[in-house]
Amino acid sequence: MAKGIKNKTAIIGMGCTKFGEFWDKSADDLIVEACQEALRDAGIKVKDIDAAWWGAAVEDVSFGRSGVPLARALKLKNIPVTRVENYCATGTEAIRGACYAVASGACDVALAVGCEKLKDTGFGGLPDVGPGEEFKFYYPNFTAPGMFAQVANAYFRRYGLSREEGKRMLARVSWKSHQNGVMNPRAHLRVAPDLESMIAAPIIADPLSLFDCCGVSDGAAAAIVVRAEMAKDFRADPIYIKALQMSLTPGTGLMHQSWDCTHIHSTRIAGAKAYEEAGISVPREEISLMEVHDCFSINELITYECLGISPVGEARHDVEAGFFDLDGKIPCQSDGGLKCFGHPIGASGIRMAYEIYKQLQGKAEPEKRQIKKDLRLGLTHNLGGFPGSTVCSVALFGNEL
Amino acid sequence: MVGITSYGAYIPRYRLLRKTIYDAMGWFNGATVSVAKGQKAVANYDEDSVTMAVAAAQDCLKGVTRDKIGGLSLSSTTVPYLERQNAAICSAALALRPDIRTADFGTSLKSGTTALLYACETVQAGGIESFLVCAADCRQGKPGSTLEHTLGDGAAAILVGKDDVVAELKGSYSLTRDIADYRRTDEDAFVRSWEERWIRDEGYGKTLMAAVQGFLKKYDIPIDAFAKVIIACPSSGAVRGIAKRLKIDPSQLQDNLMDNVGDTGSAMSLMGLVSALEEAKPGDKILVVSYGSGSDVLFFEATDKIETIRDRTGIKGHVNQWVELDKYTKYLVYRDLIPVEVGIRGEEMPPVRLSVMHREGSTMAALCGSRCKACGTPQYPKQHVCVNPDCGAVDQMEDYPFQDKIGRVKSFTRDNLAFSISPPAMYGLIDFEDGGRLHLDITDSELDQLDEGTPVKMGFRRRYADKRRGIYAYFWKAIPVNVEAKK
Q1: What separation in angstroms does the CA of B373 have from each of B183, B203, B393?
Q2: CA-closest candidate to residue A338, choices A288, A292, A304, A397
Q3: One of A178, A263, A265, A343 is an active-site residue; which one?
Q4: B351 lies in a domain?
Q5: Which residues in chain B touch residue A122, judged by CB atoms under 8 angstroms apart?
């Protein structure tokens, strides 16, 4: 009977580059920078790595396929390197691979790296997901903002929000993230606009406007994992993985009328399974901080509900009460989130883990960003695909066994 | 008895006021002020002669069993493909049987009536029981020309058969006449013409007089026997002159729609015929006179079944349902007459895998999905495994058509980021009243028409044009059902 991953693996080192528009940096530059920080943090050398998982989604833009680009960048000598991709949940997918490898006993030290060079596409926003027949033939020429905008329209209508009320609610979500990101030297966007200008910003895909949508950027992040029983050989404060869950819809949301267009089913399932794996019964009380997939403000909002933190249809009240602010009950996006970092697809899931890791260790940089309360359990939520057809990874981390 | 068993028509939703054209180009050719009255119908950026023909055919085939149709023809001088039969594209879109005869009739403005005659004669000869004749045109005049004002877009569809005939073909007379009054070679995008006065006298005048007189003599029938005379000639002045000489009373003349639709080329004669049919009473005699490299004259007589077909949108239902295309530059961009900056995102055009498209078959061409026989859930695209979360049955599907169903918008957006020739791109999830959900582009919609619950019908449209590789790809879009009339 499968018992799950709780307390079987630990992160002993992490690295994360600054995220931004790096016209002068290649994928190699970012990978080496993130991995060097992770290796220093873990106190190990490259030769100590037994296997690597390389998360990169849009390979045709900057690095090509297979695990070869990572092996070549780091000069990994003859070890297994697996490239993984699962839309925007790619980063967490790399962590999953590394964790299961060490947990199985197949190896001792595994590296997870995520990187994307999205600014080489030549335009803003994510590129088309791929010329596969499914999207090109059957679906409209859609964008990511357009798909989430549909959820926003449906959510406003279902819960009786006027357009003004809805847009204000969403802007408050992003406002909070910018207040956090402005303090973070690694973030791409370090501005903290006032709420009214955020509401009035130009529309991208109605009703979502500029500040409801995260940008795209370049960046890389890395994690080194070992089995939990070995973790204290490397550092005094390893971060233990309490749960690693993933859920994919069968894509039926876009084909069957049962999906109500106002929630993400994959998030509900992955969240519930993660809580079960970690032994959490009241997430609203037991989770200390979260990094969720705020590609769009509406997704962050419904994620609060789908993760069972806020009651369904009522996240607005928590948002307006500051429940998720840095000084709130469950700080969310304490580093600024996708909103301030942008979304280099392969890196984002690992960047989320990086923030949880540092906060749980009490080592957030600079010090004023450190959440000043007793932190025990951190959650990352990493969502790929489009509403109605999604892949969601939820991971839980703790600083105690 | 052989004749018309059903009919339909289509006029695109947009109207370009001729004043708008004149305001933009009158500085260049002041003489166009003489034609700058009224408006013309303009196809949307995602329409062409093939899509308009399919729309007219959808109208014609309401309540008709499509399996009984044994042939389809498309008459047009503006088909998108010069090799790859356009009638076959229409036939696939309409989900007709594969074992039928299809043909394109082109290159002359009388090709609509010519095809109609051949269809009647084929049915008469017994080879085919039921034949669908479609005609559509979206001809183009050069910016600054008179033709730019007078040409308009439209389509008609006539079903010919032996059973339940509503208008019998009683006779015909044809003239062929090679005259280069209008012309367009394989290298021209625009219609060319000679002097209008010459066309009026030598072209319309001589040809139409000879055609009608030849017909009347052949059948020894007086002109005043006809309840309606359709003269498919874009020059209202020429028509008046001919009518006077032939002693056709103005009340007999079918409105040629030049004031509010324009010169619809190959479709003009059949659109006029549809206009007459939708008002005809049993026993009415109808004369159709086409023009283009000669003339066909067709004589129909409405039967006592003519009033059984009165639920078509036809001409009546389309002619007053329109929205103004408010800018001349939009017309230029929709017609690809000026280069525009599509941006790097817009330039992305991954290769279309034609073998994959072909494999999709009726799924793509006819918006045909499947219905699970185990739980009855309609689904799209066709599935092996049922999408119903409570079912999951494997390979228990039957074909299920969506193109004739009405849906309602479930979720939607107006997307300023997605590339579109007519931004913002509008799309969303459409839930069908009989079951099933599709994710579709929404077209022919004003910005404020779109809301949760807006009813939509399915329309066959040009999805994109890959000019580099010479591919026009077609698919279905959702169209809001209730368009507010604007005059």
Answers
A1: 55, 61, 9
A2: A292
A3: A343
A4: no
A5: 344
A385: tokens are: 């695909």
Does A136 contact chain B (CB < 8 Å)?
yes
In order, the DSSP letters of A342-365 are ---HHHHHHHHHHHHHHHHHT--S
Chain B residues in contact with A388 (beta carbon < 8 A): 429, 439
Cα A283 from Cα B247, distance rounded (Å)? 90
Q: In chain A, what residues touch B479 (CB-CB under 8 Å)?
A: none
Q: Which amino acid is residue A215, in one-letter code?
A: G
- 3-class DSSP state for residue B470? coil
**Interior/surface letters B225-249, b for 16+ CB within 10 angstroms, e for the rest:** ebbbbbbbbbbeebbebbbeeeebe
How would you classify the pairing of strands A377-386 and A389-398? antiparallel
Structure confidence at residue B160 (pLDDT): 98
Amino acid code (one letter) for A232: K
SS3 (DSSP) at B144: coil
Sign of CA dihedral A283, A285, A291, A296: positive
Domains of chain A: 144-192+242-395 (3.40.47.10)
What pLDDT score was predicted for residue B487?
42
Domain termination residue (choose one: B286, B319, B334)? B334
Domain-located, residue B342: no
Rg of chain B in Å (alpha carbons): 23
List, for chain B, all residue ranges whose pLDDT scores fall below the cut of 50.
485-487
Q: Nearest C-alpha of chain A: how many angstroms from B364?
A: 7
Give the H or E element holding residue A315: helix A315-321
The residues of chain A scoring below 50 in pLDDT are 130-131
Helices (H) and strands (E) in chain B, counts: 14, 22
Six-digit token string for B236: 């209202």
Q: Supply φ then ψ for residue A354, to 5 degrees.
A: -60, -45
Q: Would residue A343 show up in a list of annotated catalytic residues for this protein?
A: yes
For residue B358, which residues of chain A lie inside 8 Å, CB to CB? none
Asked whether residue B328 is assigned to any structural domain, the reply reads yes
Number of domains in chain B: 3
Q: Which domain holds residue B456?
A: 406-487
| Residues A301, A169: Cα–Cα separation, whole Å | 9
Q: Is residue B357 part of a domain?
A: no
pLDDT for B209-257, tens place per residue?
999 999 999 999 999 999 999 999 999 999 999 999 999 999 999 999 9
How many angstroms separate the CA of residue A367 from the nearest CA in chain B? Answer: 39
Q: Are A228 and A9 in contact (CB under 8 A)?
A: yes
Residues of B (396-425) whose Cβ lies below 8 Å from A: 410-420, 424-425
Contact A371, A245 (CB under 8 A): no
pLDDT given for residue B486 in this prediction? 43
The minimal CB distance from A140 to the residues B352, B379, B439 is found for: B439
pLDDT of residue A128: 62
Q: Cα dist. A82→A93, A232, A347, B303 in Å?
A: 11, 27, 15, 75
DSSP symbol at B88: H
Query: Nearest C-alpha of chain A: how many angstroms from B220?
Result: 57
